[in-house]
């Protein structure tokens, strides 16, 4: 902090850290030569000195600055014939947002006549009234209620009923205003024991001191803290000559958006209020009118020339800010003055359109345009969403398990959902929870709602894979499938009644809510092309079935990074064969059941390879524990026994044998592969035979990547790799065709990360399954974390949910260790990430920095990952360039 | 490998790597001046050359060595009047055990008369017969059956009926032997097409070549591999002059133990066979007789002078080997010759006694004595064991969950066990599985058997804590508690029938098996005193209750390293209060229920502190998920609801709410502490109040160490530490007493290990819970690993069960990372290990190398840990000394 006062002309106040954000913005606008009142900025350091010692602490510097301003404006503060009026606006330092402004400083008994000479007596008195009303509470601590009571005892039209400009004020009105001023000044005298400050300089000093002290008060610091602002942020000031929105000629104030905040279209829009100042429009005392259009009261109709001048100023502001802007302006006797220009707040779609348009207009580089978009905003482009403007009747709230929105008839069973689908009315499937038997119904449903379950429940995982909107854990709703009634939000719904699922908000709504449809073309498509051109990392999709692969290909991914083969086993015929395998006595019976699965799986793989032709496909061998394929209830187990023709005791015994205390840490993944070799042998065979057939069908080589899950020791890899090689050799001989393939390790146990060097020696790729790796690194089951995750996030124990955004400090370090060691074991080992973090922008950036070759995520998040990867590449390049010797 | 032959006199063959283990032993014995036949050693390098090129490859070196031997013995090979006879014995290189010997080389038609001059004609012919019988199959590849058939066509007493020494051979017998020799030589001629080697030198060369080739054959290599030997191990030879155990005067062969192999008492024992050679005693053709004792046929009775000479030689061998030995000897005409001396194979108790005795006799340093004992052997000292000599009728096999053995009446319920105990007949509790409700019955039972469960099942954990023998997962047994029948091993047992549980072998036996009782005094006690003097690391005990602490103190531990406070909640009254707490609505009701638990817990802590006075006590705050305290079956839940006077629906709802998919990774440990603050607050209060009271009672300060479980982020530590500090402050004020305490972190998630630096900044100690850390590092639930652990160990996927012996490569690296980072965060942070690995010697050694301050284990394993820690200290010191600049 300097001990000398630090006051500069606005044009020189570009340093936001020193003069606050508002001053810096105004400096930028001033530099661009835009029409603005002259002014100066007081640094935040000076603001702190004012808070402790009053404005006098600024010493002669304030006088000098004032003098320069007077000279620039050609008026003097307190001048009796043509006085200068001032505005004092707070300019908060970094990490905080500002405080209110005090306008019309300088109007007082002494100068009223001078002001009246310029704007008429009524307007002058109105300005004086406004000053007292805003100044007295803020700077003098006068009770607002007392002021309003005093006003209410005089005619109420004083403020609200100001006549349109041009009409001569009646003597009555001026007299009325004088009475009101007198009444307010009496309140001030009574409440403070002193008259309202009589001189403009006194007003200025007090305004500065009161604002600075208020900002520094403990209460304000606490408020900043509560808002998440930096409580230590400083406060500077912007002092400008007033542009008067009240007076003769075309006068008023308003705000203008350089582009449409909803669509991003390059159309000027906004609102203004004739004979108004600053925030009058927002106060709602009078209805502001649109700037544009052919209505009677638009500025365009009233004064096309003024609108043109405003439009030019807005264009200038946009250029100065290098972004779409929302401008605050005043019209004084037809002349436009800009008071501020902030970046335009905008919806997701507008953000994309504006960034692309600005780049195409040459105002931004493409890289800068890509950096402008928060990748998560793209979700709105990818799914239908409930129109934010539409009214919504919420009947239940749960977890936002899969984004998008859909409306349709309620179906209480998968079968009912299929019936509705057959009629061309995709249903909203509403269940307590879903299981493998619901898969077909989910495929044809428009959306899914469950009463139970968390973010990794069956319903949530499957819906995300399908890209269908889904809300889970809607605890308040009551479901009586027998009676066919859903009770929610105090209403009852029968099968066929229409409801809406809003998977983005995690809500169920009554009726069919109006939708905004997804938008893949236009600016979005352009942005994606640019993103692909800028990114280094590949973006693959997690695709479990040919249908998923088709969606993925539509999202222009670089391959399949994770095909969870178990999802191929849930169709009714297949799960029967799977269950036979599980109930089989010994390897031969197991092989017989698996032989029935082989053609299905092979056919799926052929289709997958053909769809993804030319792109890599990573297939994970069976991962879940076998009990996931058995029904759970006693009744379903009996049914299964009957259907299979085996004693129910045997089925129960097998189910009991397979039951696990901690399934996440149990007999699954490669442990199954090692101990029940027939399963992986069948899968390897299906993959290789499919590779041969797909290569013949497409006349292009297919190089499948076989991924082994849940590895914790290198010996698991080598053992399974040998078995896979044996199957490959057998298929090569049988088919008399050569083919190549890769075998890799899914790194999802901390131990696999630590042992990555030796594992990579026998693995062509390492793909990090960060879902499970996070669970194991924290010792935290995602399914069981619901009970305390909210409390943990609220208390800041976890800064973020580590299942949403990669825990860089813990899981991330394991990744870095594994990357370094994996490369030591095999310098060209391919490195990927295939957890849900692959669709999280911060995690994608981490992967870029860690040098991953690709990330893989749900197809519906692929555009997010593509943009995030592009941003990560751009930032990494920038960091490198900054760190380069030439730049140092 | 040198290209020059490498043959040395036996006395110079001390280098086992060069001449094989047997040659090295004989060199040691020779150097000690013990009575031994002269001989020389052929190196393993030469053995390899013989295998490829025959004995000729040795060139003149063999002639030179033979000449020296002839000179030393004063006889010449092939001499017609007094020929030298030779033995050729294999001396396997390191990593393998040897092959058979060929004796009596040098007796043939040409020398028979010369030998007969020395030993008589019959003995000479018998030696010749023996040579052919052993030489022809090994060196000439003649079929053994053919030889035996030829022999069987001549009188059968030829070998077995050799007359006692001194009796003159009848002419008939010599003639009979001549016919047998002729018959065997005819077989050799027929089978090989060549006569039996006619010259002694030919015999020697062929014996060497055949043995060397056999050793190098693929079949022998595979056998070595199958045995776990090094298939590449080399083979050297020991060639000695024969000491003839057949002939006139006192002749024979036998073996002698320098100390008792069972008890370790310093008493010579052994067996011998008059007129016998080498392995005759082992062949079982004639019954050998004891060396000592006053029976008619003992050596002591027959020739006390010879026994005295043998005893002196054995003492010499013991001195030379610096250990108790088993000696192989020959008596030739009254003179003792040692043929070999190996370290005495011995039982666990003998091992301790011998090591201690040798050290007290000054033959070993105490450090060397400590290193002699495999710490795991101490288990036999600590628990009753089934007499290994007794017959056993096994009725069921399961997992050896807790060592020791006990016999008693079968009890099918905890209540029944209490009834038997009241009658003074501690029972064997036999259950499907156990739960908290069985605790009292387990306390009074002699042993526990369950049909279900793994190494961390309730029964296994509790039994280990109690030191009671336990076998779990006995799948084959059928239990019908309603009918009161246990069916196992084809037999039925009713309540009260006596059975035996062998927790060391993991078996259930019918009836009361004879037991060997534990032995804490004598050599064992001495060894423990020495161990404590040599170890650097502390050894603490895991003790959950005052009763445990008393046992621990009896085992002379350095404190309590882990008190699992939840085990204090399972007694009937307490679990009721605990369940009320769980079912409570809101913090106030929870506090009320906890207030009832407080006095119990405080009283337990007071007792614990008083028992452990002067020693540190580490108390872990509540760790398990709350559902572990609720009953499981629907019926028990109803009973609970009735007892508590709450609706059963509420109890069921709460149980459903608390149920978890992966309890290991769920709402437990500090997650419970953070989200339900009242529990840890009560526990902290109980600890502090107890510390005050115990300090008053003992007039010594008590410094409790409070351990926070399942930490994954530093924020959990800081938040809970603050709350604990607040409780401490409150107790200080209420009690008007100062006290100090420590707060530490139980490191059991990989993330806590990675973040140890920041965690240690706010933690006075880090204690590694390697059970859970292993589960999370591998992604492997110990309870669910039973399904594949055996297969994994058998296939070598895991070299050892990582829950038994610390996985040095994975979990161990996390420990090393955490130790280094923890010290960075707090240089004097106290480091301990409190998983079950604390009782595993290899893991203890790892902890020594990692610089831990202590390990903590079950009280019953503390002696093992104390010895292992002493060994680790000794070895570490040795490594340091070896690595010191002076030693380099």
TrEMBL record, chains A, B:
Entry GO MF terms = ATP binding; kinase activity; metal ion binding; pyruvate, phosphate dikinase activity
**Its domain of life?**
Bacteria
Q: Active site: which residues?
A: 458, 834
EC number in record: 2.7.9.1
InterPro entries in the cross-refs: ATP_grasp_subdomain_1, PEP-util_enz_mobile_dom, PEP_util_AS, PEP_util_C, PEP_util_CS, Phosphohistidine_dom_sf, Pyruvate_phosphate_dikinase, Pyrv/PenolPyrv_kinase-like_dom
Q: Which residues form the PEP-utilising enzyme mobile domain?
A: 425-506
Keywords from UniProt, A to Z, are:
ATP-binding, Kinase, Magnesium, Metal-binding, Nucleotide-binding, Pyruvate, Transferase
For whether the record's keyword set contains Magnesium, the answer is yes
List ligand-binding residues for Mg(2+). 748, 772
In this chain, substrate is annotated as bound at: 564, 620, 748, 769-772
Q: Where is the PEP-utilising enzyme C-terminal domain?
A: 522-872
Q: What class of enzyme is it?
A: transferase
Signal peptide annotation:
none
Cofactor(s) listed: Mg(2+)
Catalysed reactions, semicolon-separated? pyruvate + phosphate + ATP = phosphoenolpyruvate + AMP + diphosphate + H(+)
Family according to the record: Belongs to the PEP-utilizing enzyme family.
**Role according to the record:** Catalyzes the reversible phosphorylation of pyruvate and phosphate.
Record's protein name: Pyruvate, phosphate dikinase
């Amino acid at each position: 902090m300097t001990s000398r006062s630090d006051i500069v002309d606005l044009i020189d106040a570009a340093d936001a850290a020193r003069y606050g954000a508002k001053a810096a913005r105004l400096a930028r606008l001033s530099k661009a030569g835009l029409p603005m009142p002259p002014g100066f900025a007081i640094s935040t350091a000076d603001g702190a000195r004012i808070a402790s010692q009053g404005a006098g602490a600024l010493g002669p510097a304030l006088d000098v600055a004032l003098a320069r301003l007077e000279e620039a404006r050609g008026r003097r503060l307190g001048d009796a014939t043509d006085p200068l009026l001032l505005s004092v606006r707070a300019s908060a330092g970094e990490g905080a947002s500002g405080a209110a402004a005090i306008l019309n400083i300088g109007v007082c008994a002494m100068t009223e006549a001078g002001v009246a000479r310029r704007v008429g007596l009524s307007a002058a008195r109105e300005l004086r009234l406004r000053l007292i009303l805003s100044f007295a509470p803020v700077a003098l601590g006068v009770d607002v209620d007392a002021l309003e009571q005093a006003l209410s005892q005089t005619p109420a039209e004083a403020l609200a009923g100001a006549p349109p400009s041009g009409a001569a004020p009646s003597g009555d009105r001026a007299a009325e205003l004088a009475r009101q001023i007198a009444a307010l000044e009496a309140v001030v005298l009574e409440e403070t024991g002193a008259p309202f400050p009589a001189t403009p300089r006194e007003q200025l000093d007090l305004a500065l001191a009161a604002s600075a002290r208020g900002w520094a008060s403990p209460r304000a610091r606490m408020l900043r803290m509560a808002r998440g602002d930096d409580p230590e942020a400083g406060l500077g000031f912007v002092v400008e000559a007033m542009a008067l929105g009240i007076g003769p000629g075309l006068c008023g104030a308003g705000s203008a958006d350089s582009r449409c905040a909803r669509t991003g279209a390059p159309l000027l829009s906004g609102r203004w209020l004739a004979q108004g100042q600053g925030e009058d429009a927002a106060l709602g005392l009078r209805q502001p009118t649109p700037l544009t259009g052919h209505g009677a009261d638009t500025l365009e109709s009233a004064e096309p020339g003024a609108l043109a001048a405003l439009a030019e100023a807005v264009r200038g502001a946009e250029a100065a800010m290098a972004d779409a802007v929302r401008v605050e302006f005043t019209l004084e006797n037809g002349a436009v003055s800009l008071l501020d220009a902030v970046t335009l707040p905008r919806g997701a779609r507008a953000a994309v359109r504006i960034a692309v348009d600005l780049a195409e207009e040459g105002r931004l580089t493409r890289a800068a345009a890509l950096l402008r978009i928060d990748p998560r905003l793209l979700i709105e482009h990818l799914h239908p969403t409930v129109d934010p403007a539409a009214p919504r009747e919420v009947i239940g709230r749960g977890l936002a398990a899969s984004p998008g929105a859909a409306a349709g008839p309620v179906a209480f069973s998968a079968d009912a959902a299929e019936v509705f689908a057959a009629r061309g009315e995709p249903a909203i499937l509403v269940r307590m929870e879903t299981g493998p038997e619901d898969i077909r119904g989910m495929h044809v449903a428009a959306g899914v709602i469950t009463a139970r379950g968390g973010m990794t429940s069956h319903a949530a995982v499957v819906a995300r894979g399908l890209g269908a909107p889904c809300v889970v854990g809607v605890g308040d709703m009551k479901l009586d499938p027998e009676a066919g009634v859903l009770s929610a939000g105090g209403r009852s719904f029968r099968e066929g009644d229409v409801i809406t699922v809003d998977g983005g908000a995690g809500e169920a709504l009554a009726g069919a809510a109006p939708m905004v449809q997804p938008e893949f073309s236009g600016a979005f498509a352009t942005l994606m092309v640019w993103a692909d051109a800028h990114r280094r990392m590949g973006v693959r999709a997690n695709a479990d079935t040919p249908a998923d692969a088709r969606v993925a290909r539509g999202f222009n991914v670089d391959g399949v990074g994770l095909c969870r083969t178990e999802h191929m086993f849930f169709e009714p015929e297949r799960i029967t064969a799977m269950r036979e395998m599980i109930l089989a006595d010994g390897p031969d019976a197991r092989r017989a059941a698996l032989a029935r699965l082989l053609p299905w799986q092979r056919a799926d793989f052929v289709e997958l390879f053909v769809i993804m032709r030319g792109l890599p496909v990573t297939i994970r061998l069976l991962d879940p524990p076998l009990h996931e394929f058995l029904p759970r209830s006693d009744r379903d187990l009996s049914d299964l026994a009957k259907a299979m023709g085996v004693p129910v005791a045997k089925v129960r015994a097998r189910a009991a044998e397979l039951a696990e205390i901690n399934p996440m840490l149990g007999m699954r993944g490669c442990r199954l592969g090692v101990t029940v070799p027939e399963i992986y042998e069948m899968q390897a065979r299906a993959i290789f035979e499919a590779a041969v057939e797909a290569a013949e069908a497409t006349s292009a080589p297919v190089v499948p990547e076989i991924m082994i899950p849940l590895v914790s020791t290198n010996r698991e890899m080598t053992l399974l790799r040998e078995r896979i090689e044996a199957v490959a050799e057998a298929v090569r001989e049988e088919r008399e065709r050569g083919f190549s393939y890769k075998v890799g390790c899914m790194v999802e146990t901390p131990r696999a990360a630590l042992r990555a060097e030796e594992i990579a020696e026998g693995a062509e790729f390492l793909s990090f399954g960060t879902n499970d790796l996070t669970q194991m690194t924290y010792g935290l089951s995602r399914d069981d974390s619901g009970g305390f995750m909210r409390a943990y996030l609220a208390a800041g124990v976890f800064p973020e949910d580590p299942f949403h955004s990669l825990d860089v400090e813990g899981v991330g370090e394991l990744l870095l260790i594994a990357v370094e060691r994996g490369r030591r074991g095999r310098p060209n080992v391919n490195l990927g990430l295939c957890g849900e973090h692959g669709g999280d922008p911060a995690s994608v950036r981490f992967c870029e920095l860690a040098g991953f070759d690709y990330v893989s995520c749900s197809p519906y998040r692929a555009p997010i990952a593509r943009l995030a990867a592009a941003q990560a590449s751009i930032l990494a390049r920038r960091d490198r360039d900054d760190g380069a010797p030439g730049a140092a």
